[in-house]
TrEMBL record:
Ranges for domain Lacto-N-biose phosphorylase central: 441-660
Lacto-N-biose phosphorylase C-terminal domain boundaries: 665-716
Species in which this protein is naturally found: Virgibacillus halodenitrificans (Bacillus halodenitrificans)
Lineage: Bacteria, Bacillati, Bacillota, Bacilli, Bacillales
Signal peptide feature range: none
Enzyme Commission code(s) on record: 2.4.1.211
Pfam families with a match to the protein in the record: Lact_bio_phlase, LBP_C, LBP_M
Molecular function GO labels: 1,3-beta-galactosyl-N-acetylhexosamine phosphorylase activity
Descriptive protein name: 1,3-beta-galactosyl-N-acetylhexosamine phosphorylase
Amino acid sequence: MNKSTGRVTLPSEQNFLNETKELMERWGADALRDSDGTKLDDEIKQLDAKIYTTYFVARGNNEFAEQHPEETQQLYLMSQFNTAKDKSLEIDFLKGYFEDQIKPDYIHNPKEWWEVINRTTGDVVDPANWEVKQETNQVIINQAEPWHEYTVSFLAYMIWDPTHMYNHITNNWGDKPHDIPFDARQPFSNQFMKDYLENWLKENPDTDVVRFTTFFYHFTLIFDNLGKEKFVDWFGYGASVSVAALEAFAQEKGYRLRPEDIVDRGYYNSSFRVPTKAYLDYIDFIQQFVAKEVKELVSLVHDQDKEAMMFLGDNWIGTEPYGEYFKETGIDAVVGSVGDGTTLRLISDIPHVSYTEGRFLPYFFPDTFYEGNNPAIEANENWLAARRALMRSPLDRIGYGGYLSLAYKFPEFVDYVEKVTDEFRDIYDTIKGVKPYTGLNVAVLNAWGKIRTWQTHMVAHGKWYKQAYSYHGITEALSGMAVDVSFISFDDIINNGVPEEVDVIINAGDAGTSFSGGEHWKNEKVTATLREWVYNGGGLIGVGEPSAIHHQGRYFQLANVLGVDKELGYSLSTNKYFTEEADSHFITEDVSTFNFGEGMKNVYALSEDTDIIVHTEDGIHLSSTTFGEGRGVYIAGIPYSYENTRLLLRAIYYSAGKEEQWKIWQSSNLNCEVHAYPSINKYAIINNSNVEQVTDVYDGNGNKSTITLQPSEIKWEEEQHEG
């Protein structure tokens, strides 16, 4: 592999010139950036590199924010559940919240904008029957129903930006002032943002790329009374709410939102919730506003011949990169944090930008770079996870963030990153703009569809949680597979049917979640369309509780397509005779160990026509069936692993009825993968592990060869055409 340079962004800081020059040379960096908490001095800015400067639109100007406290960003929050023991109930609605982060909004009349709900009945309490004690931050209910539970949904001001708070605590910034976020929808703030940026651009001629971090509204991140994360939803729109926004929404959409439309019983419309019409309307409303305002800021940047880059994080709400309005912003580039293959594809597949950039892990912060720890281990794990996806859809650039002085103290880490940057450029130079071979087309079906492309089963960006990791493995596996992947919604099915190019549909999730579908499965158009499509040759893979809602004697509404249903306890008197496993099956032909995550209990076969592949005392974990000309496959859960990646890929081929194409651009060793690029007559065999691997490799004609790969090696080969 030849040593090359470019396409790498290096973080730097003051008084670190010589070391910066050394690492620029070793890592081949052609761009330098600051981070939250660091600055680039003039000498560093004069180096031969493009200069990125972090820019905060809605925070970092406390002098202005303190002059206009009424324009501080707001959000709706819900109190804890409180049980009434008699007719009077006092609710300390701030209990459990971090009061350095929020304070109640008493500027706007609580009787008009707050809501007290009897959670036992779901009834809204008449404002005449409760009052607010501002001096103690309490709501007093005067006509409570004894032994009923009550909550208060209240408006609050966000007096400390949550990312700044996180960085402040993580890096022990002591008495450094707390950044107060202000609201672009408010008149003084809106004008200030534009005036300040215009002046800043003139005062920073050395800046080539304005790295917006990001724009106006932070994803929902609320801390508890101990200063720990209480609630985090990387998709949450809660911090975009304000009285001004609610009034504008009512005027535009023709109806007024309730506080409950935002707090959502305390679930805050997490992406796991099936979105209501009101919430979808609100998302659309915020996206339109943000796109319009972003376009004005980007135009100011372009007027000074600079590039506008958006960080896919922090204040990214409203700038949905797969949303309807993103293309109108004029943004030049998107940079985001790469936690795995899924998050790499989330960034690299973004349309309507000139280039994409991934910020690789670990971040150069003291929580990783400390004596006794080896950050090269995390860097290696991060690179191997992301590289699979990179082979399918390469980023244009990579980089790191944080304090370069910390990373410099770890020579093994510096050495490893040098190898990573060289390998990245080699991959990019070989395959950028080249379509890889894809055997099949797979669509992931859920309530969000395209807008959540590569974003299913995430709670926080690049992280998975219990009850999510059994499903997040699907997108992680798909991110590096030789298949085309799309994300479709139930509305897409209703309005347009199944896209013609789709071979296999995956529906995965716990019952009632947006990813399984919930109430959408009661829609006869959805079920009838999918049954017909599979019957005529399509493939359906259901994971966990697919198509699940109890309705008309079924739990899985596509039970007849999948060949299985789940026992809810209603039909225990009906015998379930079919438990015998098949002797062998294509799906498990080269998979010997199984991990279904949390799994699923009490799934049973409908008839002897169901091929039971894995069955335990808890029920069926893996099965298949034929439905007309098509096939259904059921899997209890798919945490990410190389074994499960192979199992899912085989399930895709089997459900599509394309087993005969399996040995095309394929590896016999599941620790290795083959990525082919027919238009340039090249293919790559990659070792995804840190140990030597031997594998049989099948080329585009099914010809077999045996190859040995060193730990994490990529081996490029020329495609041999049969004469």
